[in-house]
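Changelog entry

Holo records now carry the ligand SMILES as an explicit input line rather than a separate metadata file. Below, a converted record for flavin mononucleotide, shown in the new format.
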Amino acid sequence: MSILFSSLNIRGMEVKNRCWVSPMCQYSSEDGFANNWHLIHLGTRAVGGAGLVMTEAAAVSPEGRISPSDLGIWKDGHIEKLNEITNFLKSQNCVPAIQLAHSGRKGSTKKPWEERDNMVGENDGGWIPVAPSSLAFDNNSATPKELNTDEIAGLVSSFVKASKRAELAGFQCIEIHMAHGYLAHEFLSPISNKRTDEYGNNLKGRMKFPLDLIREIKKVISEKVILLVRISATDYVENGWDIEQSIEFCKELKDLGVDLIDCSSGGSSPLQKLNPEPNYQVPFSAEIKKQVGIKTGAVGLITNSHQAEEILKANLADVIFLGREFLRNPYWPLKAMKDLDNSADIPDQYKRSF
Ligand SMILES: Cc1cc2nc3c(=O)[nH]c(=O)nc-3n(C[C@H](O)[C@H](O)[C@H](O)COP(=O)(O)O)c2cc1C
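Structure line, unchanged by the conversion:
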């Protein structure tokens, strides 16, 4: 049997395979609520055989959204529809996962498919973004308001409350988004964090907010919920965040009880030098797995079943996240199982088609 379709046990939770859906914003919510788009979109990928299906970034506060149409989990009213989704995913023997996020200085933007003068003004449902330092991402972005220490503590509390709601909604896995130039990554990276207080100054200070998040979240979620962190392993910019700092950070995350690092990269600077090609982020997963001794996920231009299997066989990652390939083909795992194992866990309703 292939490794891709063998089960993975994470602290007692059995995930049926290692082929997981990467978080992908749908920009299809009103006031943060999930709706039938999310139910069908995520549900289809569970029917398609993914072992774990992760929601898009769900904002922990209204100002933590990227666009006003983002999914959210900042109020109890959001739980009911999310619960319908987790129930369906579980009925397909799929682990429901949610990514919790705050957009930081990259908030209050339009949907990507809208015209590109980017920012949504305060009169049109937008807001002034917040960040560790008052530095805009680029010339087309708003200048964020620098967070004070009370506001930082308030954001930790927002993540904690969102984590509790996630568990109440039935999610068995929570991933904290610390990548792609959003709030937690903004604290980590010397490019966006110029603070001189306890939340900046040096690596220890820059790691404080992200580590506080994990420490406090671990206190409120039950043992059976698995906790993942998505990082950007490098900024691809000189004197920015890099793999060496990522390794130090992941050692701390491991000590705090994080179960798996989802290894992405980039997003904190328009100056990043990056030419994405198949497997381009796999070396980060391999390095963190080796240096830190923690489970890792590889993501990024992985589209072929044999490609995915080779990564696992070489022990460069424990799981494979697929993003855009799952948008093109929600049934990717069913076909990949046929390719690799000549058998597949096909839903009865679809049996005669594969
Ligand atoms: C439409 C779209 C939305 C995305 N939204 C998120 C998101 O909410 N959170 C996140 O961490 N990454 C997000 N990503 C990044 C993907 O999860 C993934 O890391 C990236 O697309 C690379 O993987 P791929 O080559 O398999 O698509 C998004 C990507 C796409 C294409």
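Spot-checked after migration. The first strand starts at residue 8 and ends at 10. The radius of gyration is 19 Å.
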